[in-house]
Design brief:
135 residues; mainly alpha; 6 helices; 2 strands
């Protein structure tokens, strides 16, 4: 079942979503949670904790991640690759680049908003814990 990945993925999801402090930094994470709820791993993340949703904390429903990045970092962020076909393997180089950048800009935006440089990850994590964490 799932090429032997069912239990390792479930364990990872339990580790990520089973903590009180923010471990997962996301944007509009409710969409991801809805998709996870329909997946074979729904039980592993049924009651998620430790999610720091930057849209919930620092944005608005009308502002997307590209808007938050432009507002906080002053640079454009192209989301065109988001709509590409992600089920085909292997992923294209552009998809890998987009996925890495999509994750990294979340940390950059959080660091900028909270006034903690990325070079101080422990201090950034502590500041995120002080915020209201969406769960």
């Amino acid at each position: 079942e799932y090429m032997g990945f069912a239990e390792p993925v479930a364990s990872l999801l339990r580790a990520l979503f089973g903590r009180e402090g923010p471990v997962v930094v996301g944007f509009a994470f409710e969409n991801d949670l809805q998709m996870l709820a329909k997946s074979p791993w729904a039980g592993a993340c049924a009651e998620p904790h430790g999610i720091c949703d930057l849209q919930w904390l620092f944005g608005s429903k009308r502002e997307g991640l590209a808007g938050l990045v432009r507002r906080t970092l002053g640079v454009p962020f192209c989301k065109a690759e988001q709509r590409s076909y992600w089920h085909r393997r292997p992923l294209r180089e552009a998809q890998w680049h987009y996925a890495a950048l999509d994750a990294f800009v979340l940390l950059q935006a959080a660091a900028e908003i909270l006034g903690v440089p990325l070079s101080q990850p422990v201090a950034l994590a502590a500041k995120l814990v002080e915020q209201k964490v969406a769960a």
